[in-house]
Design a protein that fits this description.
By secondary structure, this protein is an alpha+beta fold. Helices cover 36% and strands 20% of the residues. The chain has a five-stranded antiparallel sheet, sandwiched between helices. The protein has a five-stranded mixed β-barrel with strand order 9-10-11-13-12. Strands 1-2-3 form a three-stranded antiparallel sheet. A hairpin with a 7-residue loop joins strand 9 and strand 10.
């Protein structure tokens, strides 16, 4: 059995908010919790160096030149000058050249769980990196986020085209920072609407790490079967392969938004999950195992005919449907006998979708329906019928006996 490669080009994650939703101005002091700001400063390596006990702390950025800049952050809002101190601290952050200052402001503006990737890639002369390094890191990170999003919709060893639209839509509000050297990248997953993705990816990464360790210690692959329940899949292990390949090691860490607290069942200070080149053979083996093991799925699909083809005026033909209901894939192809093919053609001409039974095949990424039967037109209301007819008129060049294939 062969499968379509899953390394297709993926749409880029939404750009960093400095270039999109965020205008670069610090949030208003009355919208910032001093405790949250202090937690974020500590998370990003800032050092607390004294301050009036019980009133405010003095924070300096990481690095050898950190002592030249400092922030006064109030402990709480219990004092009259708390808002003034917060406003000055936020303004100083917005003007700071420290890379972490931008990330702290993003986390304050959009309460988010932070997912960080890093790669220990060999450096070139003068600590340079190949120009493709950033693209490779971003591609691996996006594939990993897609895998986590897929696992929030269903549990499967291999998804193929299933749930892809919903998974991609769940990444619309994910914000990403820069990755200038291709070694580090941070994604900000908004708590509102995105926490389930961060939690599932966090759990899946730990399960994948444990399954790899079990395979290397015992030689058994059973742990990968049980890891599917935690969100491990072909898509996730392929993303890990892409992250680790060509490096001396890579890791992923999840830090929970301090404003929202720690999700139920998760550790507050979770250890990073790391993988090495020595894990690659096991990850590749697991990916192939998931491809082989995922079964076909019986479905009843309702869809509109968007393409038809057969070699002559009679006999069997191939039809492509745009799926409206019955399966979490955008399109499927199916082979129909002469009578069913004629029914599909007539339904298409009058602007009606069809309903068909069959099995959604793993081979090809769940894009083909085998054993198609019981093809019948489906009645729709006038508004939907008009919309379908308009789509037909716009795509007449893709209909007919001589239309090209997929």
């Amino acid at each position: 059995m062969t499968h379509r490669p899953t390394g297709e080009r993926l749409r880029a994650v939404r750009p960093h908010p400095v270039d999109a939703a965020w205008d670069g101005r610090p949030p208003e002091p009355d919208a910032v919790d001093p405790a949250v700001l202090a937690t974020l400063l500590q998370r990003h390596g800032w050092q607390r160096r004294g301050g009036a006990a019980g009133r405010y702390g003095r924070w300096t950025p990481p690095g050898p030149g950190g002592g030249a800049t400092s922030l006064l952050v109030p402990v709480s809002r219990a004092f009259p000058d708390s808002d003034d101190l917060l406003g000055e601290a936020l303004l100083a952050l917005s003007r700071s050249a420290t890379p972490s200052a931008r990330e702290i402001l993003v986390s304050l503006a959009v309460p988010s769980d932070e997912i960080r990737w890093w790669r220990d890639a060999p450096a070139g002369p003068a600590d340079t990196a190949p120009w493709t390094a950033e693209e490779e890191l971003r591609g691996a990170a996006r594939r990993m986020l897609i895998a986590g999003a897929l696992a929030t919709h269903a549990r499967a060893g291999y998804y193929g085209a299933r749930h892809r639209r919903a998974a991609a839509a769940s990444l619309e509000n994910v914000l990403v920072g820069p990755a200038p050297d291709g070694r580090r990248l941070t994604a900000f997953v908004p708590v509102a609407g995105g926490r389930a993705l961060a939690v599932r990816l966090h759990q899946a990464l730990y399960a994948a790490r444990e399954a790899v360790d079990y395979r290397r210690a015992t030689g058994g692959m059973d742990a990968f079967d049980s890891a599917v329940a935690a969100g491990v899949s072909h898509e996730l292990v392929e993303a890990l392969v892409a992250l680790v390949r060509g490096t001396e090691g890579a890791g992923i860490a999840v830090a929970w938004a301090p404003a929202a607290g720690v999700p139920e069942g998760c550790a507050g200070l979770a250890e990073p999950v790391e993988f090495s080149p020595g894990d690659l053979p096991v990850l590749r083996e697991a990916g192939a195992r998931y491809l082989r093991a995922e079964p076909s799925v019986p479905v009843r699909i309702t869809g509109t005919v968007v393409r038809m083809r057969r070699s002559g005026p009679r006999g069997v033909g191939t039809v492509r449907l745009r799926v409206l209901a019955g399966a979490e894939v955008p399109h499927v192809r199916l082979t129909l006998d002469e009578d069913s093919y004629r029914i599909a053609g007539h339904a298409h001409l009058v602007g009606l979708p069809v309903r068909v039974h069959g099995r959604l095949e793993s081979r090809g990424g769940f894009r083909r329906l085998s054993g198609a039967r019981e093809v019948v037109p489906v009645q729709v209301d006038d508004a939907e019928r008009d919309r379908l007819m308009k789509a037909l008129q716009e795509n007449l060049d893709c209909f007919g006996e001589a239309c090209g294939g997929d």
